[in-house]
């Protein structure tokens, strides 16, 4: 007989809480969007900190967090935006593993920074994969918990943790059993996640149709601020700023788009495409946000301001590889911590 | 096969095979897609075929891991694809499937059939006959899961989009927008003129291939009565 399966009970759902992993890859050729986390770095780091595989699904929690109860001891971590998490009234710090004791209650408060945070639980959520992914795709009603956002009363079973998670639990559990939760005395260095020195600065590679825009528009993209409007969601952020226009009108043929593509419809306000983007689009692409800055983007909320600075494709590629090697270092670091 | 390549961000290459929508360019896209399907490189995440382009998404770290000499993942992937394309022959791809799609035209399923007939000076029966006698080619799947971009509709039944889009179009509705016809796989908002509905599921999330249709397929619409439509629906259960 094994131990009883850990259950996570949602007593309050929060504004928009969904199960997401790194996306439903391989099906875009059938028009199936990838979905997946808005902030892949935060979700991957959260998983690494509890000994999961990076690609394991996490809970994506948006602005107003849920209230969650754990039926058994669980190893968790919370990464991304700071939505003031607390466990049984005591502040739970981000970016580190936390061993939560049976019966404790995790809740969230004020949104202090960012917009979304990711809750990883050692073992991962035991929900069915659809087309190779646990990601929730709301419009098609697939993935996650019955293809929908979580609601009160949902009970999510947790799978058996891997050996690495068990070692992390032992590492944390040294004789402090009376506390409602135990946190590690180490955490992720913030420079791993915050790659930019200043908030709101986003690196952009020129898009395929950049040169079709008027000289004025090309300049405005990199000099003026753009505000994230309230018409923004997981599919895309609609921005407001100077109007951007093509030099002369051109009929476009639909082609692939990607996470971070900046497209400009004819009315001139750019849209940044995000996790729930369509697979293809027919608007001209003025730019593409460097992958390393997608976290920053995912953590901006309506009303926030963005500034784009140009980066070459080679520089974006270099930053990408550097960040990946830093994430690899973090994985090795976690292994060392629980030797 | 001649083409141009462009980066789409820092982990995808877009291959452009032509500048206009036509069957020849579409066939090139199909040949490359078929090759990538049969021989997926270890670093490839996926690919998206479109009218005149095919975009290959890759994992830059895996590119470097699997090719010790590569310095830039993008340069490596471009060189790989250029080599691949030089070896592929433009021609008609192996065989085109023909997919029959039964459609119950008009009535509650096709509230705009009368409008489409009226603006084209036709009877509703004529619109149905023209729509169901055309030979259609699926150029690409996009916009929504399983949604086919279809070419080949007669301009005699063309109709502009509605001025204000409907908030909800039921799944499996067949519509016309301008010179295009298409089928909505899932409930979506949209401005198309709705002329009928098929009992066939175009999006099948449980299947290995979740889209009934694939780029390169040929479509034949078959008119069915409301009674046949209902029987079909019952058979599905």
Descriptors:
heterodimer; A: alpha+beta; Cyclophilin; 7-stranded mixed β-barrel; B: 237 residues; alpha+beta; Gyrase A, domain 2; 28% helix; elongated
Percentage of residues in DSSP E strands of chain B: 25-35%
The greatest inter-chain interface is formed by: A-B, 39 and 48 residues
> What class do helices, strands and sheet pairing of chain A give?
alpha+beta
Q: Radius of gyration of chain B over alpha carbons? A: 20 Å
The assigned CATH architecture of the largest domain in chain B is: Beta Barrel
Organism (chain B): Peribacillus cavernae
GO molecular function, one term (chain B): 5-oxoprolinase (ATP-hydrolyzing) activity
EC number (chain B): 3.5.2.9
Protein name (chain B): 5-oxoprolinase subunit PxpB
Would you write up a description of this structure?
The complex is a heterodimer of chains A (339) and B (237). Chain A is an alpha+beta fold and 339 residues long. Chain A has 2 domains: 182 residues, no CATH class; 123 residues, Cyclophilin (Beta Barrel). Chain A has 6 helices and 21 strands. Chain A is elongated. The two termini of chain A are 28 Å apart. With 237 residues, chain B is an alpha+beta fold. Chain B folds into 2 domains: 84 residues, Gyrase A, domain 2 (2-Layer Sandwich); 139 residues, Cyclophilin-like (Cyclophilin, Beta Barrel), CATH 2.40.100.10. In chain B, a hairpin with a 3-residue loop joins β3 and β4. The interface between A and B is large, with 39 and 48 residues.
